[in-house]
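Structure record:
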Amino acid sequence: MTSVEIERLRFGYGPGAFVLDLPRLRLDAGEVVACIGPSGSGKTTLVNLLAGIDVPQSGSVRLDGVAMSALPDAARRAFRLARIGLLFQELELLDYLSALDNVLLPFHLAGRAAVTAARIGAARALAASMGLTPPLLERRPAQLSQGERQRVALCRALVTEPSLVLCDEPTGNLDPRTATTVLDLLLDEVRRRGATLLMVTHDHALLPRFDRVIDMSNLCSAAEAPG
């Protein structure tokens, strides 16, 4: 489990562009939290900052007391691969890899030695628990349905057994039935492992499924930077 703590965070994309000011945010270890707010309120920016993809211009992002913003690029990348699972609306699957190799991508990125027989077996077992049969795992993403691709991306986010899972609109492109199935699978796995989850969503019908809801429009200020 991973706790999250943000203090006096400020981040902007450049002169005249979006600026996020977040005085304080805390997620307790093992919490399952939804993040809502209108477009432009900083939800995706928050996910990128927590993942260490972006670095704040001031303030701090701490995961289990580790100051992500103070780590060099390579250390942030290694931390992300080892401790954080990421799931995005656009999925970001690689078309030239099989479904199984897409699931195993975090291990491939960590180095050839990380792709062990035990981890391949665990990835296959995780995929099977989500209804991805062996024949489906040999297919490329273009040969899969949208729901199947979403399950592949979900397996990739969970295959390293991360202690923090960050999701940015993972059900946004799905029909209601498939969205419910994917959310069930995600919440079951996160709660079974005791991981911390932050999920960005526009679907307010899903909110009762979470321990807590964060509304970015109330939590912080997101505005145009002075030009």
About this structure: The longest strand covers residues 18-27. The mean pLDDT is 87. The two ends are 41 Å apart (CA to CA). The CA atoms of residues 100 and 208 lie 33 Å apart.
